[in-house]
Amino acid sequence: MIVAVLNQKGGVGKTTLALHLAGEWALRGKSVTLIDADPQGSALDWSQQRARENVARLFGVVGLARDTLHREAPEIARTADHVVIDGPPRVAGLMRSALLAADLVLIPVQPSPFDGWASAETLALLREARIYRPQLAARFVLNRCGARTIIAREIAALAAEVARFAP
Ligand SMILES: Nc1ncnc2c1ncn2[C@@H]1O[C@H](COP(=O)(O)OP(=O)(O)O)[C@@H](O)[C@H]1O
Ligand SMILES: [Mg+2]
Question: How far is CA 10 from each of CA 7, 25, 98, 148, rounded to the nearest angstrom?
């Protein structure tokens, strides 16, 4: 499966979620490759730092911050159980490419109106991608927010509302 962790906004937790998801799958015995599609290369930096410190490698990280991602990701997926794409902020071309490659899109959001507005742009790109790929699944992931809090309930209700208008 190819999972793309996307949100136009920076700092919402894309890299954190992508690394944890890849790590969790690897610990369960799956072969995983993480594609760092962010030109800033935070996931690559993380992986290189671990190599320097001789920490055991859980999964491979490759840097692929280019618009040909939609052709290259399925190639990589052929030799792995799962591919996780750590998406870029802002770059619409890269984001479109990731949306063309993915089976599932995860959109991390934090409980703030700023995140809501940025997610609207991401949802517009998602809607566009679904013209070509109607089966493309997408889910919001509430980040940095206690699951049982009032704000979590409010944001979940808001996300459900948004998803109804941008299914
Ligand atoms: N659930 C979380 N709890 C605490 N800190 C978090 C959490 N998710 C992300 N962060 C922190 O927030 C910052 C931004 O996260 P990052 O994954 O780099 O976001 P993005 O990739 O969307 O720019 C980082 O310093 C990261 O350690
Ligand atoms: Mg990132």
Answer: 7, 24, 16, 25
Inter-residue contact 32 to 84 (CB < 8 Å)? yes
Using one digit for the tens of pLDDT, what is the confidence trace for 17-46? 999 999 999 999 999 999 999 999 999 999
The sign of the CA dihedral 117, 92, 19, 76 is: positive
| 2-165 CATH | 3.40.50.300
Please give all residues whose beta carbon lies within 6 A of any atom in ligand 1, as ranges: 10-16, 42, 143-144
**Model confidence over 51-100: pLDDT tens digits?**
999 999 999 999 999 999 999 999 999 999 999 999 998 888 999 999 99
Mean pLDDT score of the chain, rounded to an integer?
91
Name the residue of 6, 14, 16 to mutate for ligand 1: max ligand atoms within 8 A of Cβ.
16
Give residue 159 CA to ligand 1 midpoint distance, Å: 20
Residues within 5 Å of ion ligand 2 by Cβ?
A: 14-15, 38, 42
Predicted local distance difference test score (pLDDT) of residue 17: 98
Instruction: Report the atom number in ligand 1 closest to the C-alpha of 17.
Output: 17
Domain ranges for the chain, please list them. Answer: 2-165
| 107 three-class SS | strand
